[in-house]
Amino acid sequence: MYFQHISKVTTVMKIIICLIVFTSLFQVNASAQSADKNKVMDFFQNQQFEEAINYLNTAVAADTQNIQLLGYLGYAYYMNDNTSLADKYYRQLLRLDANNVAALQYLAMLNKNDFPDDALQFTRRLIYLQPAKAPHYRNMGELFKRVNKQDSAFVYFNQAYLLAPGDYKNGVGLADILIDEKNFRRADSIIEAGLAQDSVNVSFLKLRIGSAYKADDYKSIPLPGERLMRLNETPLTAITQVVLAYYNLKLYTDCIRVCEYLAAHGYLVQNILFYQAKALAKLKQFDKSNELLTTCINLAISKDAEMYYYNKGLNYLAKGAFKKAIAQYDTANYLFKNPVMNYNSGRIYEVNLKNLQQAKLYYLKYLAGANPVEEDEKKAYAWLKEKWGKKKPHSAKK
Q1: Do 94 and 34 share a domain, yes or no?
Q2: Using 50, 70 and 90 to split pLDDT, how confident is the model at 371?
């Protein structure tokens, strides 16, 4: 119930914030409206977006040039998760008012994933209209980072930080770029300034760990790592780097503790279990280490892999690459102990390679481990047992 309450509060806050921005950016003379603004606001505040859409569509049909109505309709579709129609009406609004900041902001947000070039153009226009607004530069930096243009991203993140160094989002964006560029000194100075303002800022703590890890500065990792864990945070990459730092510092007990922390939060990840096993071995707890290594093996080898090896064998068989087909079946049998794979290899030796001696060896391996259930396999098993089962393998003859 607590989390449901938090979710509802978050949704309501989102609507309130959007409405504050929305109403401040779409101020027009009330007499120019062809719809009741108070009614529209009531729809929005009560999260009745379908009702708002129905009401506004009628109004817009009667007044297609009304900027405020188009803005309301775009917003209603946006809040109703119909992004394509939200985009349509904001673009229609923009054709009537090319400098409409609200429309530009929503269009930049709506297009950043699928149409980043469009989002770049909208954000450039916002920077031109509001050159002192740091969020526009930060958003531009994020867009360039998405398309892997690090140099351009740096320029805009840097400008956002210069305009508003107190906004932690600007510091996080710039520090992240600096870490990628291995400019650890400046990145760390920004991160430390951010942590001085808020010592439990999760974004800065993760960046501090990432910066130290990439710089091989393992001694600087435990402090931010322990803070994250005290906050009960589980960013997998950052906490994995804490595991590796403790291991490299030869603090094996702490390494195991952090691995157990991740496991307690549901992260049964192979490399985490592997380093826990290695740390246990360093402490000479070899049996526990082997248990974890067995778990790693089971996680690494999917049961589906048997089917993949089997089908690779079929492909090689169809191509006439008989030895390669047998190699696939041998691997599948070795990993999954399925005796049917021995039968498949025996058939290839008997039918395709005409090597009865090798065929017999594979058939006898199959008979020794088979437990047929399907009728077709039972018949094949009975036939093989009759033909080969009473005879000793050729290699056993003196």
Answers
A1: yes
A2: confident
